[in-house]
Amino acid sequence: MLDSVAEFGHSYPAWIVDIWGVMHDGVSANEAAVAATAGYRAQGGVVLLLSNSPRPSPEVQAQLGALGVIEAAYDDTLTSGDLTRHELEMRPGAKVFHLGPERDLPIFKDLDLTLVESDKADLVVCSGLFNDEVEGPEDYNDLLSDMAARKLPMLCANPDHMVERGEELIYCAGALADVYEDFGGDVTYAGKPYAPIYQLAFKKLSDLASRELEPREILAIGDGINTDMRGAAEAELDSLFIAGGLHASDLRTIATAEKGEQTDGAGDLLYDGTLLSKLFAGQQLPVAAMRGLA
């Protein structure tokens, strides 16, 4: 358990850092994380921000600036939206049903495709819920079961199931894709923890470092066990787990079961390595953990 990433993170030439939940919470920047990544870069480190956001990098970078994440905090970004666009470029002329909010429409900009209703589509691109403030996956059962019955392939532009928005947890495209698979639908995932996004990340980092980097030279930092941590493990990267926020409620549940009494807040539980290790349920453990990147 660490208080500062500088205790060991500066021994790696490059970092892959999650955005939502580490660099910001969807409302404002994590000032300590911004200072940590900017300080690391000032000492020669390379930082690639890797996000399961369905938006392409230019839109994500604009959002970063609006939330207070300064450009000095990172070298470049790579998103699920970037990878989704790459996948769509290989399907010229596709008729696409977009399952997601209008704010994600930049993912289709200038591509050779036609946006249509679900009954006329040959592909569905899922970037999230239409209204993630009031809806849940259960609201989409009829639509998803119908598309699955018609064997409409889905491209999931955000494998996350949930993310933090301020103090709230909201559903993401991954939650809908999971239900779609339960209905027998075929899903291709563009993002963490799947290998293609890491292959692109390795290439980007090597270009930024002006030499080919080995996995052992890269530290992955994130707050998602099933995305950031699993992806890092499968890519053979050391990882730093950010324990606060996304999995805090899971940690409270484990602590209550272990101690036999109700635990109201995460608090010092986030510094209990034994409890934290139980969150991973057989997955490879990270090298270290922190409450928040600092």
From TrEMBL:
Q: Which GO terms describe its molecular function?
A: hydrolase activity
UniProt-listed SUPFAM superfamilies: HAD-like
UniProt keyword Hydrolase, yes or no: yes
Q: Per UniProt, which keywords does this protein have?
A: Hydrolase
Q: Which domain of life is it from?
A: Bacteria
Q: Which residues form a coiled coil?
A: none
Q: Per its UniProt record, what InterPro entries does this chain match?
A: HAD-like_sf, HAD-SF_hydro_IIA, HAD-SF_hydro_IIA_hyp3, HAD_sf
Official protein name in the record? TIGR01459 family HAD-type hydrolase
Gene source species: Methyloligella solikamskensis
